[in-house]
């Protein structure tokens, strides 16, 4: 059951230059994926970003596709979307841990990625989290990517030796 807890959300960053995002989605649960995509697209649109979308077979392929795009294409950031629902085997743990680890490693290498791969116990949890009118985790993942892009652009234009600028 999702709680009614409220959280602080940073306002979306503003950009002087165009922003191009790639949404990489594993549509294993199509309806959930479609809601995640809708939320991510809406958030990107609010920030004035353009979006391309690709689909991959599953959550384990999401970081690989982002890694390929980061090396071979021209995107400012990435939004990883999908859903892993616990089943009867330990495969759930492998998919959750390895997809998250892959995304984290890409981020540590400099890719601006918002991770919106849901890892849930049941379909009801996924539906609430994916719903753009609910928890909007797709929109949250897009916002995370946009914030990282803004941060990287700030540091890319900062002069050496000046220090941190707010």
From TrEMBL:
Q: Where are the transmembrane segments?
A: none
Enumerate the residues binding (2S)-2-hydroxy-3-oxobutyl phosphate: 88-89, 129
**A family per Pfam:** DMRL_synthase
A GO cellular component annotated for this chain's UniProt record is: riboflavin synthase complex
The protein's Enzyme Commission number: 2.5.1.78
Binding of 5-amino-6-(D-ribitylamino)uracil occurs at 28, 59-61, 83-85, 115
Its pathway, per UniProt, is: Cofactor biosynthesis; riboflavin biosynthesis; riboflavin from 2-hydroxy-3-oxobutyl phosphate and 5-amino-6-(D-ribitylamino)uracil: step 1/2
Catalytic activities: (2S)-2-hydroxy-3-oxobutyl phosphate + 5-amino-6-(D-ribitylamino)uracil = 6,7-dimethyl-8-(1-D-ribityl)lumazine + phosphate + 2 H2O + H(+)
The active site consists of 91
Domain of life, source organism? Bacteria
Listed GO biological process terms: riboflavin biosynthetic process
Q: Which GO terms describe its molecular function?
A: 6,7-dimethyl-8-ribityllumazine synthase activity
Which InterPro entries does this entry report, sorted A to Z? LS (IPR034964), LS/RS (IPR002180), LS/RS_sf (IPR036467)
Q: What is this protein called?
A: 6,7-dimethyl-8-ribityllumazine synthase
The gene behind this protein is: ribH
């Amino acid at each position: 059951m999702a709680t009614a807890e409220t959280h602080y959300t940073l306002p979306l960053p503003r950009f002087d230059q165009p922003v191009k995002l790639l949404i990489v989605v594993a549509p294993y649960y199509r309806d959930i994926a479609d809601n995640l995509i809708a939320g991510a697209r809406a958030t990107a649109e609010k920030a004035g970003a353009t979006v391309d979308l690709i689909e991959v077979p599953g959550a384990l392929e999401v970081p690989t596709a982002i890694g390929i795009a980061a090396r071979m294409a021209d995107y400012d950031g990435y939004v990883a979307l999908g859903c892993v629902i616990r089943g009867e085997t330990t495969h759930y743990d492998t998919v959750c841990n390895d997809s998250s680890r892959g995304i984290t490693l890409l981020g540590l290498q400099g890719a601006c990625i918002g991770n919106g791969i849901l890892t849930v116990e049941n379909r009801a949890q996924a539906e609430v989290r994916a719903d753009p009118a609910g928890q909007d985790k797709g929109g949250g993942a897009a916002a995370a990517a946009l914030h990282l892009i803004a941060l990287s652009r700030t540091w890319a234009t900062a002069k050496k030796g000046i220090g941190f600028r707010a």
